[in-house]
Amino acid sequence: MIQREPIIRQSDMIQCALCEDAPCQRACPHLPVSTLLRSIWFRNEQTAALSLPPEDPCLSCRRPCERACVRPGEVPIHDLINRLYYQVLPEAETPLPEDTSRLACDLCGVPMENPFLLGSSVIASTYEKCARAFEAGWAGASFKTVTRLEIQEASPRYSAVTGSDGGIIGFKNIEQLSENSVAENMEIFRRLKRNYPSKVIVASIMGRAEAEWGELARMCQDNGADVVELNFSCPNMVEGDMGAAIGQLPELVERFTAAAKKACSIPVLSKLTPNVEYMNPAAAAALRGGADGLTAINTIRSIVGINLHTYVSSPAVRGLSAIGGYSGNAVHPIALRFIGELGLDPQLKGLHLSAAGGVETWIDALEFLLLGASSVQVTTAVMQYGYRIVEDLIAGLNLYLTEKGFSSVREVVGQGLSSLSASSSPLERQSVVFPVFLRERCIGCGRCVLSCADGGHEALYLSPERRPVLNGKKCVGCHLCRIVCPENAIAASPRRITIPSPDRRSKD
Ligand SMILES: Cc1cc2nc3c(=O)[nH]c(=O)nc-3n(C[C@H](O)[C@H](O)[C@H](O)COP(=O)(O)O)c2cc1C
Fold first, then answer.
1. Whole-structure pTM value
2. CA nearest to 243, candidates 266, 273, 213
């Protein structure tokens, strides 16, 4: 069975830096240790366990990997491999699939070997970068937005909200569009198509007026692009009828989509902005303009990290800062919301949805597919971890599809829509699911009691032995206790209990 909750957690890897050309790997004569560690990190522990040789070579090994580590002795590599062998492997029921053909799909009829594309940005801005990404396994790339505007970027241009381990939770950029000339980008498209004919080149473009949208779309097609993506959503290009300003005005979305469609015969995606309350009107306008699909989301307008001495937010450029686009893991739930709403809309049936926003693992990508996306774009996670993450995206999704008995990735698209309601009103409200406390895991910290008292319904107290005790009369089954528990020691009861007294809810 697929493990939604991993047996080994990222926190068990403690100080692993996920090194480039990892010294632990160089020191280990037996196993691809750095690949195994990465798989654990990217929620792909089953693939890691299933790829181990039958005999455990660590049994007779003196741990040169741990000594070679850039943080010597701080990453329990031996213990992690041990857990793969003796905890994860026994739970893995399906053998590793032999090939990845079930991941084959298409972008508006253009064949793709898997659903994973580089998102339009710095990660897909040169020939060499795209070539390295294609070699790593990406099915294609949405190239950094091509424009006739003169672009000169600010420095510094990035900032981030980070977690306690220093990893990026949310990422802010004030970057604009491709600094290459149009001619340079066309030359890149020709070379990429010549040398990687089976990879999908999505040409992201931004024009200034109808004629220019059409001209750029045709040029990209004539120089090897398979698909055109219309950037109606850059939050860092909002002067006049530019960038995200277009995505906020359905009439412009329709007009510029129609201009691009008229000028080329390859599929056209309209990339929409999340900086609106509701994206569907712009999506319907793109459809009226003839779009074959939609890309969502671009980045969300944001401010991060105000310096308490200078009062300038980050990134500060010579004492000034600007509102910029937010991306990465933090925006994933918001991106899921937009994709879900687009997927639910019967008017938009038949449009290809290319989803972007906070994908790091195959699970994040699968969530988009389940809500109706047919391809998935990744940017921030590649900026943080490199092109190599595609190995775990492919392997994790492939194993999941095999375990669930799907013969093609197309079969999962939209599977999550029938249980999704755009509002919370149709939900059943007559019963509760109580928490259950896993005594063997509880460390007696009392965090659940504290949160229930101040942020919940005062339904828990701490016993003299420092264990939570539930008052079933007060508990409303909100599950705040479960969420705040640092040890994952609270679960949901398998039973749903009907609330006995309606007067408990009475306002009189
Ligand atoms: C540094 C940076 C530059 C970007 N440049 C572009 C761009 O030129 N054109 C575009 O359509 N989107 C651009 N994006 C948006 C991404 O393509 C993507 O839609 C967004 O970052 C959400 O995905 P993510 O969370 O995987 O990064 C950029 C994003 C980042 C972080």
1. 0.94
2. 273
